Fold these 4 entries.
Entry 1:
Amino acid sequence: VSSKEFCRLGWRRAQRHGVRMLLALFVVCGSTRAGEDPVAIPYDPAQTIIDAALGDTYAYDRLGELCDQIGPRLAGTERMRAAIAWAVQTLQQAGFDSVWTEPVRLPLWERGEEWARVTSPEPFDLTLLGLGNSVGTPPGGIEAALLVVESFEELESRAAEAAGRIVLFNPTWRGYGETVRYRGGGASAAARHGAVACLVRSVTDASLATPHTGMMTYADSLPKIPTAAITVEDAGRLQRLARRGAQPRVRLSMGARTLPEVESFNVVAEIRGREKPEDIVLAAGHLDSWDTGTGAHDDGAGCLITMGAARLLLQMGLRPRRTLRIVWYEAEEFGGIGGRAYFQAHRDELDRYVAALESDSGAFPPRGFSVQADSTIVQRLQTMARPLANLEAAEVQPGWSGVDIRPLVQAGVPGIGHRTRADDYFHYHHSPADTFDKIDPEALARNVAAVATLLYAIAEADAPLRPIGSATAAPGSHE
Amino acid sequence: VSSKEFCRLGWRRAQRHGVRMLLALFVVCGSTRAGEDPVAIPYDPAQTIIDAALGDTYAYDRLGELCDQIGPRLAGTERMRAAIAWAVQTLQQAGFDSVWTEPVRLPLWERGEEWARVTSPEPFDLTLLGLGNSVGTPPGGIEAALLVVESFEELESRAAEAAGRIVLFNPTWRGYGETVRYRGGGASAAARHGAVACLVRSVTDASLATPHTGMMTYADSLPKIPTAAITVEDAGRLQRLARRGAQPRVRLSMGARTLPEVESFNVVAEIRGREKPEDIVLAAGHLDSWDTGTGAHDDGAGCLITMGAARLLLQMGLRPRRTLRIVWYEAEEFGGIGGRAYFQAHRDELDRYVAALESDSGAFPPRGFSVQADSTIVQRLQTMARPLANLEAAEVQPGWSGVDIRPLVQAGVPGIGHRTRADDYFHYHHSPADTFDKIDPEALARNVAAVATLLYAIAEADAPLRPIGSATAAPGSHE
């Protein structure tokens, strides 16, 4: 029984056949440190990978550099260029076989100066973050009476009051997917009824006067009005004032604008496959972040989890049968621009992808993986993930994979989303609080362990996760 | 058995004597609403007070007005004057027998414009709040290399590095009392070694990029250097950068200054005692707040808990034997200036105070009371508080009472601190997150219930809590 087959056989069957004992005696030649002599060590691949990951601070240390020394990395900006330079250097030093960048063209959104102030009934300043893609106000800002609503439905029922007003959406938190609709589509919904600007309560379930930004989009047919997130605290106060009949007025000034396209880059690194270098297992995070906080959980963590996992295999001398390709995408926060650029540049090799994994749910304790692929593949991944049970990271279910890998998944590549126990994620998400102090080194190491174990199993498996050469056979079949 | 005696007898003895049944049949004449006819109702005073408080939203509604409509109320400012005007009107409308203001002279501290920016190794903005009483910087600010230390001890051991630097204290949270020493005394400790400014990690055990301000004081013999709190996030990042050898530089600009004394006011309201109007039970909160957030827990809550408790007794027709005096102090946040002014103005009546209660631990679920008085008084208060057991508010222990009533307590008046289950208090304390949305109406009502019950017991008790007329006999005896 070879180490490759344990993946295919599955843990239960392996145990029945006494494979576990055999595995414990299985010997590979591996070098644990670059420059050291290769040593022969007995190991169980999964548990050995897990143990090595849990004893390693590499991902944590590099994530600290990225967050603290580079800082926030808004797509297309000078800081993102600094992050890309750091990324190339770091990936090279980590010993990947090849490291390169691939161009991504993207419109450059600039925040500019921004402020908002209640001018009536009593003046007070609002804490805000303009939303990504928003237009700015005229110089000096816009002042108007506020219309506070809790939902799209309430806006529709009060549509006659919206003209000439600034609409504030103050929706109760009902989970991210439900609540983020106001951030994404609030401005055009308000513009449809003649509003001159739109404010949105920050999309979070916990606030200490913390604003949360994020992407918005305009409907083509409607006027583009400026839009910003304000804090839960300010939104609540304005709603209460309005309910008491105070008719608040707000002056909003935003210097936001979108400049012509600039060139930026995805960063790619590879460990060439030992036997089938033409087969690719892609693992990705996104290097860009919002310009507030330092992009620690979103998504410095995903970059270091995937890269840290691949590097760990290298360090352990576990070069897998297939190629492991790490991609750190640009401009995920602006709707996956980097992911689409990668897809376009790699259209001719789609039949080479065994799977694509994306890690973009922070460095909270690992849970497992959600999979966009047919049920046979989900079942194989469930088997591969069983050794992660002790990490409480063995949950594999059908579900969303990731924004960046979506074009690949739509083209038929099995998509795997790395999942964490992210109950606190939205406390930090897109806010100044998404910083390195929120990263628990032990949880980060457990994520590296989980992803390294699964990537190794996929890249090493005797039979590929799906029939290679059929990538374009069923485009969009997983969505 | 009279209702007054139940307090003295204690719950256990009362139960043994069947007093509880008698109390249930005890009848008083009381009007439950101004303008309605007095009605005769059977009641148990404590439980009737508690039930009435739990069904009443008065305190919550008024606290909403204070926080949302008046907003932050920095001592001596125009907003504090607006709060005082609101207070007088509200207390009058609540039906107190008399409402008046008493002058408080205080130096006016102005925050001015303030910002801080790391200039090296990579520029980024710091989120800060200048500390109350701090001087400002010269125009354009001060730029210097940072010396990051975790403690006074580390500063002393690195004293030679401090000259010409900005010292950042980044102490680990070890409870408020221990950690706040850096806010209060960090600047002079740094100035002693030639530092040009001082930054302090915000004094809190939880942060979402939230700065926390508060009072500081200068040692007379040392240069006054500007000082501000920065967020936990920024402080941690700077410490990590320094540990990695990055030698951060910071430019700090603060427009803070202290203007000559201005006149402001404490606000006082009274329910005259039914039989002994000359005996005073004082209950207090402080009306001033910091200029960030809206002073909801600190200490709008204490104002409305004490006042709401007294008003509730009025509404129930339970005018107690002794006078209940509500004081809403000015300038507690600047070291209890209002409390000292009140004491000076009332020196000639110190022998009239039966007790002084202060509520300044927010509107979290009630816990009980901590008492600065001799053990006999603590025991009597424990007995009086027993009916609060169902509210989980019956804990009475020796301990700190309050900043504002401290001069009274030092002069021998029994001091009572209202205590809540304030585990989350420092998440909000002195920060933009101390806002009305953090107030739980049910917890607030329970606090009103607890304070009203205790105040009634003290003001109604057959025997006063201490021998009246002996107030100045043992000055300072409780500290």
Entry 2:
Amino acid sequence: MVDATPPPADAAIVLIGNELLSGKIRDENAYYLAGRLRALGVTLRRVAVVPDEEAAIIDEVRRCASAYTYVFTSGGVGPTHDDITLPSIARAFELPLIVDPSLEAPLRAHFGARMTPGHLRMATLPAGTELVRGDDFWWPAMVLGNVHILPGIPQIFRANFETLAPRFQGAPFFLASVYLDADEGSIAAALEALERDHGVAVGSYPRIDVQADHRVRVTIEARDGATVERATERLLSSLGTGARVVRVDTAAPASCPDQG
Amino acid sequence: MVDATPPPADAAIVLIGNELLSGKIRDENAYYLAGRLRALGVTLRRVAVVPDEEAAIIDEVRRCASAYTYVFTSGGVGPTHDDITLPSIARAFELPLIVDPSLEAPLRAHFGARMTPGHLRMATLPAGTELVRGDDFWWPAMVLGNVHILPGIPQIFRANFETLAPRFQGAPFFLASVYLDADEGSIAAALEALERDHGVAVGSYPRIDVQADHRVRVTIEARDGATVERATERLLSSLGTGARVVRVDTAAPASCPDQG
């Protein structure tokens, strides 16, 4: 690549919630977002799960906001005492909290006399937060600088992210997978040479469960499809007799989900 | 509690692997361990997913080892170029790497002339690493100070953890769940009072999917079962007419998995 394109975008996800740390709830949002960012060409470089505690949220959000192009938070934006994401992010960036009229009004219209301080908390945002509305839910995605504040409920999380997704389109990754009946150690040198000589990212994922038709999946990735194709051919031609090729998924844009 | 017991143990998990960040593989190990630590009475306070990069591994392992009672790492202990957990942890604690004879010998016996430098890397550990062997797999759990180094393959991860599990037994948590047909905001004040007055941890988890028979699950937790029972009775008696109780799971030791 000879053009002066900016460096590819990267991202971090901060999952906020005791329920994930206590094993009550299995994460769906980071897994969903990992696949979607991959498909969009954004490199996810960190995921952190932190408890519903102000100091932990402030520390992680600050660190990620300064280190990565995009930060996504999940959880802690509801009406109860453990929903402290919005005030914590306000403190992280030393911003005042303000009640947003466009959130307060529909809450008051819906709850009327039953409106509680908890409900009002949902409309109380760090000053300068942008609200981005989609078609599926009335709850908007919230954007403050490079921090994207999403709710933990998976259905709304996904809808809000998809509303924002056009902002993150980058150069997609191309991915090829070679499934082998081979000992991983016996191909380690070949994989290292591949990464070194072809400028691709090489992954090696052993399986020991009997359901799998292969013992190792080798992945080859780059932002340029032809590079991935060349590296895949090199790998296939360099394997010794100890490695049997079970099947090959040739270079294609990385999709979501991207499992095998 | 009037006895001078030490503070309850806490823990962090560091998942190491590009495959988790690129969405290729969905985490199973942190989810498994979250539930198991819960059942053992250990408070999980942080999960971080980092790429196969030395600086990221060093930074996260160092930080967690100094902040929490136990650290568990998952992944990066195989024979390929991206398996850098062991040398990175050695650098994190400024320890030399040594080849462990009790790991090298079975590798040499198995691979013979096909033994590669990659295989030898699997036997190359930070000096002082304790190896703990179980019955299910020949690969041992590795312990260096408070850092427990486990492989990413879920079957071996779980077997190695279970070999170590008797070391972590603490005071278990008791958990009650109250499933409500209620608006979360309308009960927010009651939940906050519960946490404040009864010394319990209260969680509130809304559901919007049609399969759920409830709109909010309220969880009440403490290390003392009678405290959880009292708080549950208080909650049930304090709910207003806007909240209908769908069902109640009374106080019981938190188990694994702990979903609902």
Entry 3:
Amino acid sequence: MNAPEYKINGFFAAAVSAGIKKNNGLDLGLIACKEATTAAGVFTRNKVRAAPVVLTERHISGGQARAVVANAGCANACTGAPGMEDALETADLFADSLNAPREEILVASTGVIGARLDMEKIRAAVPGLVRSLSEEGLPGFARAIMTTDSFPKLSSFEGRLQERPFKIVGIAKGAGMIMPDMATLLGFVLTDITISPSALKKVLSQTTDETFNRITVDGDTSTNDTLIAMASGTAGNREPAGPDLEEFRRGLFHVMDELAVMMVRDGEGASLVVHVKVRGAASADDAHRAARTVANSNLVKTAFCGRDANWGRILAALGRSDIRMQEDRVDISIDDILIVKGGLSRGADAEKAAEAVMREKDALDLVIDLHQGDHKDRVVTCDLTKEYIDINASYRT
Amino acid sequence: MNAPEYKINGFFAAAVSAGIKKNNGLDLGLIACKEATTAAGVFTRNKVRAAPVVLTERHISGGQARAVVANAGCANACTGAPGMEDALETADLFADSLNAPREEILVASTGVIGARLDMEKIRAAVPGLVRSLSEEGLPGFARAIMTTDSFPKLSSFEGRLQERPFKIVGIAKGAGMIMPDMATLLGFVLTDITISPSALKKVLSQTTDETFNRITVDGDTSTNDTLIAMASGTAGNREPAGPDLEEFRRGLFHVMDELAVMMVRDGEGASLVVHVKVRGAASADDAHRAARTVANSNLVKTAFCGRDANWGRILAALGRSDIRMQEDRVDISIDDILIVKGGLSRGADAEKAAEAVMREKDALDLVIDLHQGDHKDRVVTCDLTKEYIDINASYRT
């Protein structure tokens, strides 16, 4: 990992092995600024919300944060009042150590649901973690938030705003319980620009909808989804608006889209990334619903696992997705190979060619044209494999 | 299989191996009456509808049928106008052979989507099939409609109506693409009572909603779901109403519920049947939605595969199901072992006891009490296993 790529002005990070994960890996990470800085967040829409989600949403409501602490190995979800006490104590511990008000500390947790955080281990880890904060710490932080992820997920972008360089670095973890509406994902996006909390929140929400909310691994939504953006304001720009804000949005999209696709690529057991692209829908809602239904179909996902161009299952999923459609207008392609025209197979040769592409590549486009209108959308998914079952049948053992 | 149990007055059946399935098994079945009899049907709500579904819905609209012919191995779905020609020719072939109008012949197909029926094989099979019609033919018919099913599914009920005995025999196939709103299932329910087409249709629809529409294997809905009821009128009763109609409904529920649970038990790769029972919901819709969301969650289903009492995933599924709920009111039991009280774990001992039950039994109740109101519902599901992936990754090969 190219460390300079993931350095960003105004942010310091560190990670330690606190002993929360069973495997002694890094499991507690901290990102901190020298003083309170602009912050915004997006959180799970699940009605069951982990204690750190509730606390962090409250703390970030003022648009300011000094630091974010995240752990893997324990989600601190479904833990009731004691779980909230643990989240509060975690914030207090770092507030004391960083000499900041409790409200400026954000907390995030991911891992097993229903288990309590081992606060003794957290308490013991705080001094070392704060002491080792450094500008080179972000790749370690990315490792500390991994659960069943097989690789750390970082992305960066460099652009220019008002003649000055600016940067964005994003970090995320994904792997399971991944589906539109924010999943078991923790995401942290850092930038050095100056931007108001309200503008940051707006751009973050919009970009989340276009990226993190357009991926699915298993259709399950988690209790802990948390996405935090922080802006250190060291780039020296004036408050961006118009084309400037658009340039920042472009950079944020780049970073978040890259992280989102990484999450699918690392989806539990996934061997193939499929970009489900729906065109020609009668409405934006139809386009989204069609793409999401196909992307979540276990039968479509197992067909991709078997590298089987089983378009009948795709048509069947479209048919139950409650969209306006006519079977005899639907075209389906795998990359640029048209396998269905007007709802009918283009023959065994086209299917064989598509299956050859499926075997050769580790990411491809499934393009569906409904020929009903001019709306389009996409959802990124992966195949459903036996490894997914292995991982999830034994997750807590 | 106890053949007398599945004999019913007024119906004759037969099955042959026409060569549509690759394995030379029985794949074409016929149920016929001596003359046209009362009939009603329920069909897939998928917008992609196989040719036999379209044709049979049209033919049964008059409330009369003489015979139903069903094949496995080819769904005749997504086959366009030529597929409709094939369905029509199939009806014509049997109409000629049975000396009945085409409109009295119902057709049903299940198997691979997108492939044409081999009409030469159907034509060749008709005379032998009609010749071998017998009162003992229903168990063979049940075998002929199997695809990935591992056992034939029959159920029977005997009751009394107006002091006279009556009988119901049901036959179904299931296995994959199983989810509320009728799935890849073909179902045939035969009774010897006299009943009007409209009363039969009403009782059939209501009972379908309580049974076949309350099961799920993989959340996918098929293009071919067809449920046909026929009443031969040989039992000698008067048109049932009030308590008489209720007695028939009770028998129909018994048969269809037994078939529905058999379909889940034989769900692709399933090793455990789970009756998801939701109580205390604020509305009937909430109860249904909660049960269905939990029953379709891949993470809940893989946890059952691993015999892991992972209640956090159950709470997380409830939380995304868009129902009225408060986390701290939810109770969860496995059979009669309470594992979650007021949203919190009752401890490792309770979970271990529940896991022992999961290992010992092949069917159990997952009881969720929301404590929000007095509505309840249930959906029957199964675990998600590696065998499901094996079956569906290689279905067409």
Entry 4:
Amino acid sequence: MASVSTAEQQRLRVVLVDVRNPLNIGATARAMSNFGFTHLRVVNPYEVAYREARSAMGGASVLQEAEEFKTLAEAVSDCHLVVGTTGARKRELDQPLERLEQSAKKIRTQLAGGRVALIFGSEKFGLSKEDLTYCHSLLRIPTLEGHASMNLGQSVAVCLYELVRDAKVKAMKRVAPGPPVGAIDRLTDLLIQNLRTCGYIKPLTATSMEHKVRRMIRRLDLSAHDAELLTGMLRQMSWKLRPDDAE
Amino acid sequence: MASVSTAEQQRLRVVLVDVRNPLNIGATARAMSNFGFTHLRVVNPYEVAYREARSAMGGASVLQEAEEFKTLAEAVSDCHLVVGTTGARKRELDQPLERLEQSAKKIRTQLAGGRVALIFGSEKFGLSKEDLTYCHSLLRIPTLEGHASMNLGQSVAVCLYELVRDAKVKAMKRVAPGPPVGAIDRLTDLLIQNLRTCGYIKPLTATSMEHKVRRMIRRLDLSAHDAELLTGMLRQMSWKLRPDDAE
């Protein structure tokens, strides 16, 4: 599935519930800026932390436009899908629990047409039992058993990354074009000449050795710049290898 | 592609170069613990930050076993593939630059047989031109143009998550089994009976309405518990709706 569009990203609400550490509020806003999400909602924050985070640098516009709510119910009332995050694995959950990879697919699908709230609980306790009753489903980041609890800012970044990652992305090629074939041939000929001079290529097996060298040079997949560089080096060596001819 | 195995994860070296902030060293170690990576290497750290991070909580064993190096060359000398991370997009790069999604595929492939170093530069400057010469390739997390610079701890978490994420993961189903068909039928019959009593279902269209109700109940995909709960509610209502029969 392709990644979300900008219009779809505008439909996501990142909701922080009972968060206490200003660094985490700041880190959330920064990750949102990094990945192109804009709407942050904060429920019942520790006021000092919230003010401190707002005055700090990074992700500034996300924080300035953040909305504050007294209750989670109010914060998600205009959303069509509410997904909670949890480190839980075995504890009794009344909602379906999915891995992030799977949950993100549903969130992307829903974002095509409606608002989605992605909820993160407090650093110490996560989401409360009551908070969970507002969630249609829960997601967990695939962390290791026994090391499941992630830093809040890091878990926000991972979730948002999964929403924007593109499964179909192609490798970006080096921008610089390769060397023209003529340059590669000159390089190859110089190398072969040197190898002959120094006795590496022997008359009896010359042809097959020369083919080997030619194939090897092609495998190197040299840039134009590197081909030129290597040619210069080999030319210098050839002068040293055949001092008689050079006179 | 499936995610990496534990043995493969042991072959990754996370390398921090010139890192200054103890919180970032700690956050790196914590993300490594979360996602099952163990080998941290630190190049030329600010000594105070390194000591402070080592004495802090979280990701403790990763930090205790971290190796310290004077130079990046030494830190990656036993690795078969060295991948640098960068927020750069357009600046002149001599290495191939790939998106994380693509680069992670190559890293996973290489981890099947050899050690891979994943390099993160300092908070302020990233990797230096010289650091980059030790990299076979560079990866960038797909952040937004103009908001490319990520928090170090968050970018480590995102990269490690991409390495362990499983593209083929299936939705985890609710563990509790659904209700037996008989329970669904009792529920449906009760609802139909109530709808008749209260005049919602009229004799002329009774059959088609009853079919509608039956299909709707099935669409709800109720758990056994919820089916029982709803049945109880409807039974209670039916007593109130038909006081004469109840006597």
